[in-house]
């Protein structure tokens, strides 16, 4: 019986802390978007993005402007691998 004098206040304090944590998370926006993360996993594009090297950038600049920047007349830009 004497242990209840200790356990009841401790359990009430634990409940109060749990309720305060719940309201704090709710106020901070933790529960605002509950379906967005689930859809982002399903719609995620897993293909890696390939980085462009400097010769590809020069070839793109050549195609966009029509100028012969960085490429001589007899030289063609290398193919990408």
From TrEMBL:
<feature type="compositionally biased region" description="Basic and acidic residues">
    <location>
        <begin position="50"/>
        <end position="67"/>
    </location>
</feature>
<feature type="transmembrane region" description="Helical">
    <location>
        <begin position="6"/>
        <end position="25"/>
    </location>
</feature>
<dbReference type="InterPro" id="IPR004714">
    <property type="entry name" value="Cyt_oxidase_maturation_cbb3"/>
</dbReference>
<keyword id="KW-1133">Transmembrane helix</keyword>
<feature type="region of interest" description="Disordered">
    <location>
        <begin position="50"/>
        <end position="81"/>
    </location>
</feature>
<keyword id="KW-0472">Membrane</keyword>
<protein>
    <recommendedName>
        <fullName>Cytochrome oxidase maturation protein cbb3-type</fullName>
    </recommendedName>
</protein>
<dbReference type="Pfam" id="PF03597">
    <property type="entry name" value="FixS"/>
</dbReference>
<keyword id="KW-0812">Transmembrane</keyword>
